Fold Alpha-amylase family protein.
Amino acid sequence: MKSGKNKKAAARKAAAAARAKSAAPAANVEKTAEVKAPVEAAPAEKSVPTSQAAAQPALKAAPKQEQIKAAPVQEKLKAAPTQEKLKAAPKQEKLAAAPVPEKLKAAPKKEALKAAPAEAPKAAAESDDAVFERRLARHYGELKWLYCELYHGDEQAFEYCVSMLRKAWTDRKPALRAQDAAREADPNWYRRQDLLGMMMYTNAFAGTLKGVEEKLPYIQECGVNYLHLMPLLQSPKGRSDGGYAVADFRTVQPELGTMADLEHLADACREKGMSLCLDFVMNHTSEDHEWAKKARAGEPGYRDRYFFYDTWDIPNEFEKTVPQVFPTTAPGSFTWLDDCQQVVMTNFYPYQWDLNYANPVVFNDMTENLLYLTNRGIDVIRLDAVPYIWKELGTTCRNLPQVHTLVRMMRMVCEIVCPSVLLLGEVVMEPAKVVPYFGTPEKPECHMLYNVTTMATTWNSLATADVSLLRHQMDTVCALPRDFLFLNYLRCHDDIGWGLDYPWLGARFGTEEVAHKKYLNDWFTGKWPGSDSRGELYNDDPRLGDARLCGTTASLCGVEAADFEQDPFKMERAISCDLMLHAWMLVQSGIPVLYSGDEIGQLNDYTYHDDPEKWDDSRYLHRGNFQWDLAELRHDSTTRQGKQFEGLRRLEEIRAKEQAFDAQADVWTFDTGSDHVLGVGRWYKGHKLIAFFNFSPEFVHVSSWEKGPYDELMYGGHRDDLNDVELYPYGFAWFLHTESI
């Protein structure tokens, strides 16, 4: 079989592809033609090479292609153009065999339907090929235009990309195709008010993927129908960055299970009406990835997948304008490789090599990896560190226009092959830089984005007992189009960075950024007088006076300190603080997401200090193992676990059924008469919710000057108006008024 491949590969005519690339890597790196035939899906637990084989007669440097049982591979080779790149040719030649996609002829017209439910029979009546061609036809023109603009008219690479999409659709199993059709017919399925997310580490929660599947009843009991598993693909021990240094995009970390286990879990989630989310680390790979190993060895074509340089000249120019991601733990954006005498771009850690998306081979192969995961049943793809993926000398290499082109193309790819899949963008930046990743209504990019700034501003409000900035931030979010969907959260796997609106704070209060950050960190580490928070700093840089914060929600709210001191008054106040913050998270528009363990008030885990692989990364403070023994107390209302679990479930149940929480509701803030208390209103179809959130440890009296009657949803009670409402320390209230229609 291998010799047959060599003959076929040698017989193919190489096409030229000398293309200008932004911030081109070292000039002496040789670019060689690469060929890739569509292959059958690999066995679930095995890795499938995704790189293209060299199109030269000598195939020693070419990645192996999986053996195909049936001969049709050769037929596909005729129709599947190659991603060839030869340095000698000045122009891009079109392959004679390059196919014109069967798009408009085969795509049946959409018939007008009397009722939405008829959409499913229509989709079922289409042949599989017709479904794909209809979706391809919808996006083909724009996809080709963007692709060829980005890759300098490389139609060969584009046609290869289209053939790869066809192969991915062919490999998509019937259950997923049925879900695609159902969600196409209900495009707002993910905007339902009963959606509730939870993020977790597989090993910390249940040990393995099979363990997570066994614990699905507990997850359902929490009201969760959106489950985000933190990085679980293969990464090297001791150099994994918590799983974000991926060595193989098609293999699960062995101690967690296999790809078959992941697919089985995805099937189980689907049966329970639960969507499964997985991280897709697209900016970089581990230095242990197959591509990186071959690049290090100097195999032709592979250094073009990264940013390699012979000297420090160009890297030093980059360093002048590119901010450092980890200035303390991993300073600089480049690493010297002594064994091959090269410099490689490493914006994150030295063992994470940045991918070069100016090379269409990288885009095609990474897109194929993404589709491989969606075909295993993943419903939501979290695009990690997406603002970083395009590099250009003389810029910050952040949020460049080409990034949006790439994300837009990935959105279209998903709508063609797997339209039930959502893209979640990780953009940890201020709102002005976050919002563009939604795209436009006509040309959307990400389906959802993290509401990072609101999260950080929430914790700022707790430390200052002042909601002015939070209200300002909320007003900004409320002014955005309702189609823009945020994921709202209090804590996640990562640290809290203090990326606040300092120009606004400076103009309003004369706040100085460095001094304010120090105050926040002192408060949340318990150093400030009167603080019961217990957190730790991450990436502390004394020179710049900057640091980020780690800790669980409960520990930052004071539960840990109260538990240690065995102080019942402090404990009640800390639990109230915890529930108030969750009530505030749930009143926002978007999808609320819990961090596993927060539902039972799990505390910091200090055992990482004694782990040689974790001791220098304080983020493991809030990445401890789930405490199942404490979860057993969740229905005992005399315990803090019971108070937090039952209180949170009550809030979630109200949100799921009350119309005022509809995604199309009007949302606004109002002046409560106190800087300690945030006031939020929601209205939908005659249902008006007025909510108060006290961010101070004192009793506060507030008003909204609303005429009633109003019912308090959480604790019960009835009021004729909302004047002179008393809130307990860190208390909240949800008042509902239903208009007569």
The first strand starts at residue 34 and ends at 35. The mean pLDDT is 86. The domain at 658-738 is CATH 2.60.40.1180 (Immunoglobulin-like). The longest helix spans residues 128-150.
